[in-house]
Amino acid sequence: MGRSAVMLRQACRLIPFERSMPPGFQISAELVWTRDGWLELSYGVLARAATGINALRLPTDLNDGPQQGQRRDDLWTTTCFEAFLAAPGEKRYWEVNLAPNGDWAVYRFDHYRSGQTQQELSTPPTVRLQRGAHQLRLDARIALEPWWTPGGCPDLALTAVIDRGQDGLSHWALCHGRKPDFHDRSTFLTA
Q1: Is residue 187 packed enough to be buried (19+ CB in 10 Å), middle (13-18) or exposed (0-12)?
Q2: Taking the complete model, does pTM exceed 0.85, yes or no?
Q3: Tell me, which fold does domain 6-187 have in CATH?
Q4: pLDDT band at residue 6 under the 50/70/90 scheme
Q5: What are phi and psi of 62, to 5 degrees?
Q6: Most CB atoms within 10 A, among 10, 54, 85, 116?
Q7: What is the DSSP letter of 22?
């Protein structure tokens, strides 16, 4: 049995919107979308600062390896890794939220920030976490069927919200407009 063809593979470095980020923080993201209806996401955080990865606010009950999360709203209010997928030429789009502890959410929007509904999934995403003193890696695999058009390559945006406790949230993306707005389709990569 042959491997399915990779239709889209994107690896990039995310940039923070806030200029107050201390030097030594980097976030990379990689996306693999396949024709057979799977989305694979990988996010890596490198924190070379003296406090390392401890500078991030993370759930206290984390273990490395597979995470047993559940669907939850408002994940973006703390450390959360995100992807936005849009049907090319259409106004509708989807937001994927992934927390380090495996909690997740997928929303469908009919238009820019309107018509939001929870997207039902055939199976929950699988999330795996690895941590070191100065790095964190989150890998996720999400089944897009039956809600994504088979064979349809998405426009996309890869983003992250990083919670640094008292130092606040920072918003990371491939590019930013005048404000940190991950829903802004002008910041999506087009298929």
Answers
A1: middle
A2: yes
A3: Immunoglobulin-like (2.60.40)
A4: low
A5: -80, 140
A6: 85
A7: P
